[in-house]
Amino acid sequence: MARAPRILHLLLALCFLSSSSVVVASASGAADAFVGCLAAAGVPPRLLQTPASPSYDALLRSSVRNLRYVAPGIPRPLAIVAATEPAHAQAAVSCGRRHGVLVRARSGGHDYEGLSYASLDPRERFAVLDLAAFREVRVDAARAEAWAGSGATLGEVYYAVGAASRALAFPAGVCPTVGVGGHLSGGGFGTLMRRYGLAADNVLDAVLVDADGRLLNRTTMGEDLFWAIRGGGGESFGVVLSWKLRLVPVPETVTVFTVRRSRNQSATELITKWQEIAPALPRDLILRVVVQSRHAQFEALFLGRCSRLLDHMRAHFPDLGVSRADCEELSWIQSTVYFAFYSSSKPVELLLDRIGETGRYVKAKSDYVQDPIPRHAWESTWSWLEKPEAGLLILDPYGGRMASISPSATPFPHRKGNLYNLQYYSFWFENGMAALEKRMSWVRGLYREMEPYVSKNPRTGYVNYRDLDLGTNELEGNVTSYAKARIWGEKYFRGNFERLAAVKAMVDPDDFFRNEQSIPPLPAAKGWSSI
Ligand code: FDA
């Protein structure tokens, strides 16, 4: 499977189709035993869908964000368990273990490589544990805390926090339909990260179903497992049902702006300068850039009023030419609508729309930039961005709070020495191989071209921007190979990878929770000193 991403996933799945009739026969036996076990454990039949059920397909697709992974030939789950209570999730894990059915947890379904609902291995028997019903958000404004179910979307969390207080916020990603479960599992950054760090940095407790089907909280799971689930990537350690969040103070009025500069309005020079300016700005200010076609779009959130924001811009980045007319003063909750929909006049209730935009095919990759990319390299990037099949680049500056947290405080290691995260994002709507190949080659080609200018040894990436091109797991016996997984693992987690594997060996030595990029158990011989 290691080279699977290089030959298109679809082709791979189709290659295996000839042997799949045998697999289907035994898989249906496993499905029956699994479903029978769940029924015996008290999971109501209406919450169990198999491919024979009329609403299986609709449920499978209900939160899919990447059509590449529901294409014909892609292996599908032998059952979907739409759990509504912790006991259902516990039963899914226990029955899965008993009957050899792996369980893939799905919260918001946004995984870029579809790992919450699709497997690339046609021989794998797996079920999806859908957590969409675990979406309650309870805010305690007096204590500045909240509990959020994994199946809640970021929009639902933001809405609940905003409804409870104008002076509180939660620091997480920009897209409101992203699920809490996967997002917090991989870190989670957005417009408040320079002031407050990652979403995962603001998790105080969690409720998790472990590989033995037990329900654990922070005290009963222990600090090693609690460390691992806050950034070590989804799926590997158990199923997190809910998270206790630290809410953070924000002023009642914040300021946003978006200014767009085209190539012939010095966009190249501005991006080149931005690279050193943005990570060094005061931590109350984030200035990100989206580069697309012939434009660079500079988007800012400032935790304060326009007049002070303009002072900062004049002092640090006068060339961008931001003026009072560009500013919009609003509440933090309105700012989340602004960044999601590029309009502050839209109702905040839009944050509650769990569906948003679907029907896309997606491929993304990411890099960390440690030294400014030279102007000439940006100049040649336009030739990529102006191609008809081009996607876009998203540049998220770090620094501020991000740089003041130890790289080993959580599994997310990209704290120090990185100017910004660079995301390559391509999406398209056309079905078929021609479109697929063109778009995938665009992303991969530009990524290749950027190699001289980004982090090295290893070339790192962000686990929540899942990219199977970095490597996929291989089994040794019935356990994921640690040696093979290191190839992709150290790119996401650097030195924290070994500790993640040590935690995995401790909590899931049989490797029940696994997917194409799950953390493998650390082989016993290697040991780990601090566990
Ligand atoms: P999904 O349900 O697909 O799960 C992702 C992974 O986590 C899977 O492996 C899954 O099995 C596992 N998992 C899910 N729920 C789990 C649970 N409860 N317990 C254990 N494992 C679980 N990121 C970012 O940092 N900032 C941003 O601004 C954005 N913006 C953004 C926009 C769009 C349109 C997309 C598609 C993605 C992003 N992301 C992002 C990336 C996003 O953070 C990442 O894809 C998350 O993993 C998505 O979480 P979901 O729960 O939606 O995914």
TrEMBL record:
Signal peptide: 1-25
Needed cofactors: FAD
Pfam family, one: BBE
Top-level taxonomic group: Eukaryota
GO function term, MF aspect, one: FAD binding
Gene3D superfamilies for this protein: 3.30.465.10, 3.40.462.20, Uridine Diphospho-n-acetylenolpyruvylglucosamine Reductase, domain 2
Keyword set, alphabetical order: FAD, Flavoprotein, Glycoprotein, Signal
Domain FAD-binding PCMH-type, residue spans: 73-250
Stated family: Belongs to the oxygen-dependent FAD-linked oxidoreductase family.
Protein name (database record): FAD-binding PCMH-type domain-containing protein
